[in-house]
Amino acid sequence: MLNMDPNEVQKFENLAHRWWDPSGEFRPLHDINPLRLDFIADAAGGLAGKRVLDVGTGGGILAESMARAGAQVTGIDMGRAPLAVAELHAQDSGLAIDYRQISAEELAAEQPGAFDVVACMEVLEHVPDPASTIAACARLARPGGHVFFATINRNPKSYLFAIVGAEYVLGLLPKGTHDYAKLIRPSEMLRWAENAGLQVRGFKGMAYNPLTRRFSLTRDVSVNYLAHFQRPPL
Questions:
Q1: 3-class secondary structure for the chain?
Q2: How far apart are CA 178 and CA 111, in angstroms?
Q3: pLDDT in tens, the chain (234 residues)
Q4: Distance CA 152, CA 30 (A)
Q5: Which residues share a beta bridge with 99?
Q6: Using an 8 Å Cβ cutoff, are 134 and 193 in contact?
Q7: Residue among 125, 108, 114 at smallest CA distance from 178
Q8: Cα–Cα–Cα angle for 55, 116, 87, nearest 5°?
Q9: Rounded to an integer, what distance in angstroms lies between the CA atom of residue 80 and that of residue 19?
Q10: pTM for the full model?
Q11: Distance between CA atoms of 81 and 101, rounded to whole angstroms?
């Protein structure tokens, strides 16, 4: 069985036409993208000339920014509508990005060890088996390759800020975007990543200022956080 929740895929299918509207439902992805890109590029020692995979690429916001940084980018997603939007936008932007409707597990069986960098941003909290996705990302990275995840912690503070605040008070995300039970503690991610053979390189929290619409890195991983792992070299 595919590691996907049809209801989760449908959420993003329904909003696909809004993906590149910086003031629409995906505004937080536009706001957070520069921070995500810099974190990945800095930790991976640059992206130029590297083969990069964006797991759960959606409409291609991160994929396009990595392509502009000189990477050879593949973007995968289980939603057809977001991928169609991503393909059209990349064509309009003059970017050559390989978009495919395929799961991380399927691609890992097809192209193990094929990528210098694997990025899986805001995906783990939307799949039935996040440990399986993490293991697939580990298999997709070449020996010595870098693997990045971004997700939301599971605790009372994250419920208040990431769900009540972001979805119901500030309206940054559509109501029902996140299911609290599916949020992931850093300790859980670390265990799954180590079981997949990855070595931890660091965790960073992400703080959001709604007035300036800017994200910044912090040591506080209690709500949104980024994680950097590396596949051991041969």
A1: CCCCCHHHHHHHHHCHHHCCCCCCCCHHHHHHHHHHHHHHHHHCCCCCCCEEEEECCCCCHHHHHHHHCCCEEEEEECCHHHHHHHHHHHHHHCCCCEEEECCHHHHHHHCCCCEEEEEEECCHHHCCCHHHHHHHHHHHEEEEEEEEEEEECCCHHHHHHHHHHHHHHCCCCCCCCCCHHHCCCHHHHHHHHHHCCCEEEEEEEEEEECCCCEEEEECCCCCEEEEEEECCCC
A2: 31
A3: 689 889 889 988 988 889 999 988 888 889 999 999 999 999 999 999 999 999 999 999 999 999 999 999 999 999 999 999 999 999 999 999 999 999 999 999 999 999 999 999 999 999 999 999 999 999 999 999 999 999 999 999 999 988 998 888 877 788 888 999 999 999 999 999 999 999 999 999 998 887 787 889 999 999 999 999 999 998
A4: 17
A5: 75
A6: yes
A7: 125
A8: 40
A9: 13
A10: 0.94
A11: 10
Contact status, residue 116 vs residue 44, Cβ threshold 8 Å: yes
Residue with tokens 């209801």: 7
- Which residue, chain included where needed, has tokens 């996907």? 4
